[in-house]
Amino acid sequence: MNNKKSALINVLLQKYREGKGTLRETQQVENWLHNLGKNTPDAVNTSEEKLVKAARKNVLKNIAPQHSVYNIMRPYLRVAAALLLLPLAYLIYSNQPKPLIAAKQQFSTLAGERKIIRLPDSTEVVLNASSVLTVDDNFNEKFRNVKLSGEAYFRVAHDSTRPFIVSTGKLKTRVLGTEFNVHAYKNESNIKVAVVKGRVRVSEHKQNGNNKPLGNVLTHNLLLTYNVSSKRYNTVNADAEKIASWQNGGLYFEDADIQEIVMALSRHYNRNIQFADTPVGKCSYTISFLHEPLPKVLGVLSQLTGITYKTAQNKIIIHSKNCH
Questions:
Q1: Which CATH architecture has domain 249-319?
Q2: How confident is the model at residue 283 (pLDDT cuts 50, 70, 90)?
Q3: For an engineered disulfide with 113, which of 79, 109, 279, 321 has Cβ 3.0 to 4.6 Å away?
């Protein structure tokens, strides 16, 4: 292998080890490492294969068990990349497969489920129940683009050269490095962005392709609420950490109507909860729960809002009280 090719391999492995590679580069290196020691058309000789197996065995033996975290970059492969960086560069290149076409990565959760996802730039995303996160195939190149349907908490790794952009319908939330919560379920009328740390810019994507900023930059404990139908928005002070308490099994509602509360309960507890009638009026409530069983939560809501409920055929049927 000539010096130019060797240098290219070294650069890719170094970027992979440091978590700075693009999604396409990450997939390419993982494929190299995954195929080390396998019998391919360009298989290495017996002595080289023994070297690979021994190296991989030593790497895996010294790695502690990992937590159950959905990782685009497997931790043991990153360690392997660091240890095999120079000695096996030629071996990797000689077994290099055809270039991979990077595809969008998609992560989803069911009702009652939460997931932790770590992106190639070391950003951590906590995905709430009944949500979908899509990572663009060009992630970590000029921009770090993701799309969200549902709710997620983002701990964005700082990178001033590559903005992190969350698309939710017509809204785009742009940051460089911060922590914030995005609530954007398709069956709800409002999209909400709450900032825990740092600064966030929320814009509306217009038909002409331009992005119109919605107010000023959001900072700590500011909450922007955007109505999808009216396209109006407002910004208020709020407790952003309480809003994001769902990460730890909590539920927090601030100025929420009974329909919004019931939909959140259905997702959180993975139960089929329906209204027997259409709630009338626009009463709003601020209330929180932490690790409470569903019957107790419904009992509190019954006292607070006047609703009644019953269970029938694995469904919870709610009768709402008119609100004025």
A1: 3-Layer(bab) Sandwich (3.55)
A2: confident
A3: 109
